[in-house]
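Quick illustration, no need to memorize.
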Amino acid sequence: MSFPLAVIDTNVIVSGLIAKDPDSPVCRILDLMLAGSLRFALSPALLAEYRSVALRPRIQRLHGLDVTEVERILRKLAVNAIWREPATARCAPDPGDDHLWALLGAGTGLVLVTGDRLLLENPPASGSVLSPRSFLELITVR
């Protein structure tokens, strides 16, 4: 049985880099992505956001990775991703997340994985929005 194609929000990636518990949902999702064991969609804009946020000085102090290590992780994610061109921009509940809504519109059956409560409580008409824990439960049960 195939797993849904996931769009992984930046907050999940960054939380996975920062989290101390390797069994936490965000760490497990990031590990699956890096291992090439999770089908996930990526666009140039989303990869750029991953980079921008992961390299913020405050975030870097939390995860302790230097620029070279962050770039290595991002290259691995880029290689393992399924690249999608976002559809026409759509209005997300938070205008800063319009690119996520557009990426969800780039195909059928895509699911956004996020820790953002606003996005979780206001899913788009097309596509699903799940928390990291709910997403792991979904792909583990299948």
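Residues 67-80 form the longest helix (14 residues).
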